[in-house]
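User: Just a sanity check before I run the rest of the batch. Below are the structure tokens for the first item. I only need the designed sequence back.
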């Protein structure tokens, strides 16, 4: 056997709080890699409720890589949360219509941060909040209730409000080697054969994997 099928929504039998969410998310602007899971006792298959202010007409995407672990209550704020800030008021008068729609701003007037991109093998902690347009690198860890307002380097541990880099998980040379290996793109049988190396600390052994 080579692990659970990435196409199984609930890979842990009898434990429905864990869901491989690529199998349940319907929004085409949410792109999720194999084996990425969300853990939530209130309904892990309903991950889309945690992607907030995500409006089709803006076209921004949430992209989650492979093998990500997303804890209960982690949320992603998308660009639809932004208001025009160049005027005297930030109140969104036009959305209420009834005579106020005439002041509808163009999209160029509203801050737009682009896609939110989470790399592979990223762990996002309990009730963390990721803001629009943030890029989180491979292997990063986002601490519980962190507010992520800017990009996170690969294999960094970030925490706080706003989140800051607390430390790198490995020396920069090791991080570069791990990025080059990109084990998350290996076929399932190769990953299975090399689990001890992946979960251990011996990069050289992983580089020599068969």
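Assistant: Here's the designed sequence for the first item:
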């Amino acid at each position: 056997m080579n692990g659970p099928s990435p196409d199984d929504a609930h890979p842990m039998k009898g434990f429905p709080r864990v869901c491989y969410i690529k199998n349940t998310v319907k929004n085409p602007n949410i792109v999720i890699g194999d084996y990425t899971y969300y853990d939530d006792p209130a309904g892990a298959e309903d991950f889309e409720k945690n992607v907030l202010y995500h409006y089709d007409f803006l076209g921004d995407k949430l992209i989650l890589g492979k093998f990500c672990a997303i804890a209960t209550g982690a949320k992603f704020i998308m660009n639809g949360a932004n208001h025009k800030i160049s005027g005297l008021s930030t109140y969104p008068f036009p959305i209420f219509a009834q005579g106020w729609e005439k002041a509808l701003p163009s999209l160029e007037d509203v801050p737009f941060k682009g896609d939110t991109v989470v790399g592979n093998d990223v762990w996002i902690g309990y009730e963390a909040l990721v803001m629009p347009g943030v890029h989180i690198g491979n292997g990063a860890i986002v601490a519980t209730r962190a507010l992520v307002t800017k990009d996170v380097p690969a294999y960094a541990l970030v925490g706080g409000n706003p989140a800051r880099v607390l430390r790198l998980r490995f020396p920069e040379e090791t991080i570069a080697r791990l990025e080059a290996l990109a084990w998350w793109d290996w076929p399932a049988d190769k990953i299975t054969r090399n689990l001890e190396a992946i979960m251990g600390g011996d990069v050289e052994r992983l580089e020599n994997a068969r």
